Amino acid sequence: MKVSRNDIINLAKSSYNHTGNVDVVSLASQLGIEVYAVEESDDFVAQIKYSKKNDQFYILVNKNHPHTRQRFSIAHELAHYVRDHDKIKAKGAMNRQNGGDANEEHQADKLAAEILMPDEIVRDYMNQMDVDSTQVIKHGLIAKLSEKFKVSKLVATLRLRHLKYYVPYIEFA
């Protein structure tokens, strides 16, 4: 099933669960994509594969990586599914090693962050925290966002910056 960027964002919002984050495995399942955590070397992050025989998409994710990394990797592969559907079908697989160019990877990262932290939900959370885009976002709030949305502090920071919140330089130790 081919879906648009808006379709996947709406599905992400609908799969936002009671724990306060988007369930990316459920989201993949809604699209008919099976997700498997696999034991791989540290340099393997994730991959989306297509089986012509079964007319089925699969996402493989490194189970040795931290949970936040796995979630982002699944969302990144879902972004490729949306953006590069036909390319994946033609090649049979896509990952950072055999995927597209740097711009395609950047666009997939950007959409992955939108999937994990949908605009509307982030803005609602920021309103609940009584924070608006004119305030300086401090490290403590980034940590809270990171925990709530189950993303890395870097993803939370970049997402807020994309949403026009002012997040000054922060060191991620």
For the terminal residues, how far apart are their CA atoms?
41 Å
Radius of gyration: 16 Å
Percentage of residues in helical conformation: 40-55%
- Neighbour order of strands in the largest sheet: 1-3-2-4
- Residues in β-strands, percent: 5-15%
CATH class of the largest domain: Mainly Alpha
Count of DSSP E strands?
4
Order of helices and strands: HHEEEHHEHHHH
Query: How would a textbook summarize the main sheet?
Result: 4 strands, mixed
Number of discrete helical segments: 8
Shape, please? globular
CATH architecture of the largest domain: Orthogonal Bundle
State mean pLDDT (0 to 100 scale).
90
Into how many domains do the coordinates divide? 2
Please mark out the parts with pLDDT under 50 across 5 or more consecutive residues, or reply none: none
CATH topology term of the largest domain:
Arc Repressor Mutant, subunit A
What would you call the structural class? alpha+beta
Account of the 3D structure:
This protein is an alpha+beta fold and 173 residues long. The protein folds into 2 domains: 5-116, Arc Repressor Mutant, subunit A; 119-162, no CATH class. It is 50% helix and 12% strand. It contains 8 helices and 4 strands; from the N terminus they run ααβββααβαααα. It has helices spanning 5-14, 24-30, 67-83, 85-91, 102-116, 119-128, 139-149, 153-162; strands spanning 33-38, 46-51, 56-62, 93-94. Strands 1-3-2-4 form a 4-stranded mixed sheet. Helix 1 packs parallel to helix 5 (102-116), helix 3 crosses helix 5 and helix 7 packs across helix 8 (153-162). The longest helix has 17 residues, at 67-83. The model has no long low-confidence stretch (mean pLDDT 90).
